[in-house]
Amino acid sequence: MTIDLFDIQCAENRIRPYVPATPLLISHSLSRLFKSDIFLKYETLTSTGAFKLRGAANKLLTLSDNQRKRGVITVSSGNHGRALAYMGHLLGIRVVVCITEIVPSEKVQGLKDFGADVIIEGLNQDQADANARRLAERDNLLFVSPFDDADVIAGQGTIGLELLEAQPDLDCVLVQLSGGGLMSGVAKAIKSQRPDIEVIGISSLHGAAMLESIKAGHIVDVDEKPSIADALPGPIPKDNRYTFPMCSKLVDDHIQVSDEQILGAMDYILQSEKCIVEGGGAAGVAALLNNQERFIGRKTAAILTGNNIGYERVFKLLNPAI
Ligand SMILES: *Cc1c(COP(=O)(O)O)cnc(C)c1O
Fold first, then answer.
1. Nearest CA to ligand 1 atom 13
2. Residue nearest to atom 7 of ligand 1 (CA)
């Protein structure tokens, strides 16, 4: 099961009124460091602060009238739920979001502010997922996976189209990899047009379910530990249809980053780009900063995937002594 370039191009037309193309800006400090042009894609500048708006918009805009009337339900660590809630509000579609008890409070409030019905239950992602699927059945809602959904993947893939449009001669693109919706879409968009561009998946050091599954050749369970990048670690349901096969086929290589490296990258991005990103959003830059030889002289793009982290939390993380 797969999606093709045309699906992503259709998604781009569909979501454009709601999701303007985000800027791809040169980072002067990274470019000096790597003696090459290094670009950052500011998904922080979507109206919900993360790229998930693309997939959520494409999904809700492709629903039938009947599905729109019934509403949707999802399980999300924050950004996907937030994006669905916002789009649902705009389009008049009911959105129910199931989350675990470990999701940070600022993300819970963000969901409620956008008008979602929030259900907090379960200590890990597997439990929240089971809960959402049960409620979908009971309340006749459409379950929308945060990553394993053809329309969501096509939506996230619009980032790949924008990258090539803005910088056709990139050598390398770094893409955060968790459930793999972002990677499947972006890699498909890029590899269908420019198979020579290296696409590298960036996972957290712990709980990297997709990477471990690709290594094993089948979906495996991983231990879930709290991470500074709460959007990155997490399990992949065994009934995966799209992202495991797509990531297995399309990703050239993988880099893992530790919480310490991510924190360093958050600090670096704040100082050099004057931009606050959440842990997951900094992972690409963390991979760059900790693999300098590999990227010297290569025209590379990394994605600042999201900025949903409270200012106080950032301040405390970056100033532990105060
Ligand atoms: C969802 C998310 C990711 C990972 O995307 P997947 O499609 O699950 O691989 C990375 N960064 C942020 C900020 C996210 O919200």
1. 306
2. 181
Maximum Cα–Cα distance across the chain: 57
* Best residue among 153, 182, 204 to mutate for probing ligand 1, ranked by most atoms within 8 Å of CB: 182
Burial degree of 167 (CB within 10 A; 0-12, 13-18, 19+): middle
**Atom 2 of ligand 1: nearest residue by CA position:** 231
By most ligand atoms within 8 Å of CB, the mutation choice from 3, 42, 44, 52 for ligand 1 is 52
Task: Give the separation between CA 187 and CA 2, rounded to whole angstroms.
Answer: 12
Phi, psi of 238 (to 5 degrees): -65, -20
Q: Are 152 and 59 in contact (CB under 8 A)?
A: yes
Q: pLDDT tens across 245-285, in order?
A: 999 999 999 999 999 999 999 999 999 999 999 999 999 99
pTM over 0.90: yes
First to last CA, the chain: 51
